[in-house]
From TrEMBL:
The entry's keywords: Membrane, Transmembrane, Transmembrane helix, Transport
Protein's name according to its UniProt entry: Major facilitator superfamily (MFS) profile domain-containing protein
Gene Ontology, cellular component aspect: membrane
Record's subcellular location: Membrane
Transmembrane feature ranges: 64-81, 105-123, 135-158, 164-184, 196-216, 228-248, 297-324, 330-350, 362-381, 387-410, 422-444, 456-476
Membrane topology annotation: Multi-pass membrane protein
One term of GO molecular function: transmembrane transporter activity
Domain called Major facilitator superfamily (MFS) profile: residue spans: 68-483
InterPro entries (alphabetical): MFS, MFS_dom, MFS_trans_sf
Gene3D superfamilies the record matches: MFS general substrate transporter like domains
Keyword Protease: no
Length: 515
């Protein structure tokens, strides 16, 4: 765990106000007066000369990592296992046993994302107003129960209802964890940690295939293989929900595993990172401000284009591997393991690199180049060259999975104040998840084994995303430089333009966008 602890030092200058690192990409710059102003709504965590001990900071981050990351990673691992195991259930015979047509199966995939889209924002508002740990545990318990109950379905209607409800209650987890992570770590430390928990989704794909392969070896006349998949993969979610109730903390202030000094240090680190935009208040005006911010929609389009490709791979990877014609359906379950395992490693490496260089956009473009290479191999290499096609699958899976942790770290970095960040993350993921519904429709059985049309649509989405990422980077560079030139009077006008200190958030003149 030590290797994911950020090595960026905290300034040790003795000042009577919060000392801010002079980094255009992520931090706040002091004005010519030599002092950093903090709005009356921000937490004033330093009142007298103080130095932040680097070793104490390392110890704090290590304790947070050891306590939070394993819990959050396991939660998301189980979440992804429960949502994606329908792909393994298809190979396990669910279509035949409950008499699904190919069109009905596709709608059972897409309906999950309708529930997901509708309830992400309400869920994150509840999480923001209530205790995050309690809300995460509650929704986890409910979706785990639904996942187990899917073993009892006997027709298309039952499958549709269960998949919709699964989406409703899983909706709050992903944007919730994104927001939850920002309550503990400064912005420059978030990419590797978001990448760490997200990489467990790839691990879930690997283990899902492994579990499905093991279940495929079971000979039983009483219960089908697909039913065993839902039961065996659903029960651990229920058990984990109960454990999280007791072990998942809410904030530095309430973290019993930290000393009093470490709690205060954690608060100071977050306040220093946010500077003038550090705001704990909640108001519906802050919520509304997200929907008038152009960044919300720019990031949502970036997210939806990536999700279309990602979910296409997740939902159809076993079928794509079967289509190579080299392995039996049961063996194909096992052959999903290497692509996901490599995606797990690539996600961690690129997330680590992104935090080290404090850079998001170029890393995103690099993942897209990997994905594009994979798509082109699958689309144009001869079907008889199964080894090269399988290599293309590995490239594609690695690219689309590594893409996610980088983009969520990027938009999480570029929205300030707790309420704006919570609502923005939920809104962006909610809109972006529409891509999952699209993915459920673009890969159709009649396209087997090449899935040329589905791959073409997904490839187009990746290209569009690459263009948008570059455009957004240039806009942020321009805006950061523009704010550098602000006079004190211009800064005050900027703050008033966006409703004063309570609402300005990341539009504050001292805020610098992460590139």
């Amino acid at each position: 765990m030590d290797d994911i602890i950020s090595r960026t030092p905290i300034s040790n200058d003795n000042t009577s106000s919060i000392t801010v690192e002079l980094d255009d990409r992520i931090s706040f710059n002091e004005k010519s007066t030599g002092s950093t102003s903090i709005s009356k709504t921000s937490i004033n965590v330093v009142h007298e000369p103080k130095t932040i001990d680097y070793k104490a900071r390392q110890t704090l981050i290590r304790k947070l990592d050891l306590r939070l990351l394993p819990i959050l990673s396991i939660i998301y691992f189980l979440s992804y296992l429960d949502r994606s195991n329908i792909a393994n259930a298809k190979i396990g015979g669910i279509e035949h046993d409950i008499h699904l047509t190919s069109v009905q199966y596709q709608w059972s995939l897409s309906i999950f994302f309708f529930g997901y889209v509708l309830f992400e924002v309400p869920s994150n508002i509840i999480l923001r107003r209530w205790r995050p740990s309690r809300w995460i545990c509650l929704i986890m318990l409910i979706w785990g129960t639904i996942a187990v109950c899917m073993a009892a379905i006997s027709n298309f209607t039952g499958l549709l209802i269960c998949r919709f409800l699964l989406g409703v209650f899983e909706a709050g987890l992903f944007p919730g964890i994104i927001y939850f992570m920002s309550l503990w770590y400064p912005r420059k430390m978030q990419a590797i940690r978001l990448g760490f928990f997200w990489s467990f989704s790839a691990l879930a794909g690997a283990f899902g295939g492994l579990i499905a392969y093991g279940i495929g070896q079971i000979k039983s006349s009483k219960i089908a293989h697909w039913q065993l998949i839902f039961i065996i993969e659903g029960f651990p979610t229920i058990l984990m929900a109960i454990c999280c109730w007791f072990f998942l903390p809410d904030s530095h202030e309430q973290a019993r595993f930290l000393t009093v000094e470490q709690r205060q240090l954690g608060i100071e680190l977050l306040a220093e990172d946010s500077g003038a935009s550090h705001n704990h208040s909640f108001s519906w005006s802050q919520v509304k401000s997200i929907y008038t911010d152009w960044k919300t929609y720019a990031y949502a389009i970036i997210y939806i284009t990536g999700t279309t490709a990602l979910q296409g791979v997740t939902l159809f990877l076993p079928s794509i591997i079967v289509g190579l014609g080299k392995w039996t359906p049961v063996q194909s379950q096992l052959m999903t393991l290497p692509p996901y395992a490599i995606a797990f490693i690539v996600t961690l490496l690129l997330s680590r690199s992104s935090d080290h260089f404090i850079e998001r956009s170029f890393h995103l473009i690099f993942t897209n180049l990997i994905s594009i290479s994979g798509f082109l191999i699958l689309m144009f290499v001869d079907r008889n060259r199964s080894s090269i096609l399988y290599f293309g699958i590995i490239l594609l899976t690695s690219g689309v999975y590594a893409n996610v942790s980088l983009k969520i770290a990027w938009f999480n970095n570029n929205f300030a104040s707790l309420t704006r960040r919570a609502v923005a993350s939920a809104t962006i993921v909610s809109i972006g998840t529409i891509g999952g519904a699209v993915a459920g429709q673009i890969y159709q059985d009649k396209q087997k084994p090449q899935y040329f049309l589905g791959n073409t649509i997904a490839l187009s989405c990746i290209i569009v995303q690459t263009i948008l990422v570059l455009l957004l980077r240039f806009i942020f560079i321009y805006e950061n430089r523009r704010r550098e030139r602000f006079t004190i009077e211009q800064s005050q006008r900027q703050i008033q333009r966006y409703g004063g200190s309570d609402l300005v958030g990341d539009r504050h003149p001292d805020f610098r966008y992460t590139l």
